[in-house]
């Protein structure tokens, strides 16, 4: 089986290519940017390029996208061209080439406004049944691409699985108040409780999805670290997250204090990965208990793959002390 990986110069694309090569699996990486993991350079909206890249391919993992960090630097048309038209070209050429599995990397950003409860409301419990309310062109175009994927399954019988991934990038938070109050490792350790996944676990979910797609047909799955919370924790999480974490992890406060770390005062949402674990057989290894074990042992909690891929940024220029520009 030859797997086509789009976006092979990006965080996830490189991680997938590294993992596939390490397992001696046949894979072709495509991207607009040259990289050590990109065999063919071109635009996924270029139909002739996509058609040529699809020859001999049995499965597609489509990670290429314009991301949230591009909202302030790219036009709405750019997002439509890449995230919608590019996905359409890949789906159509996958059908023409007889591809037997297509995995689309989407994002929990499609949930948008559904992720932000009112001040007096409990934290949001986010499962696949929550209706998306996109807040920007990124979420809107990713949701549209998801719907294209579903359409191609219904009309063309193409096996397609959509993976809504939470944060896995290593870059600093785009909110200045978070960057100022927490160092990167502290903030990202906190996020593993409810809105982050390690890239090694994200890769394993994609590779399982390739195997399971023909049997499932179509499905959407949240891909995020397994949260330790239950629905009855949601009200207190939104008022006093450290109290909930201390109850669940009695060693947490001492370990955090020893490293000069702090928990976020509130948690506004919890991503629930039950469906992915049940239907894909996914078993994520990186979670908050792992963080605490690593702190106790004086080790880095990130996976070797996350450390190998490292930070890439999203632009060819810098923006002062900001990881990328943001829109209001």
From TrEMBL:
InterPro entries: Epimerase_deHydtase, Lipid_A_modif_metabolic_enz, NAD(P)-bd_dom_sf
Secretion signal, residue range per the UniProt entry: none
A Pfam family matched in the record: Epimerase
Annotated transmembrane regions: none
Tree of life domain: Bacteria
Record's protein name: NAD(P)-dependent oxidoreductase
Domain NAD-dependent epimerase/dehydratase per the UniProt entry, residue ranges: 3-212
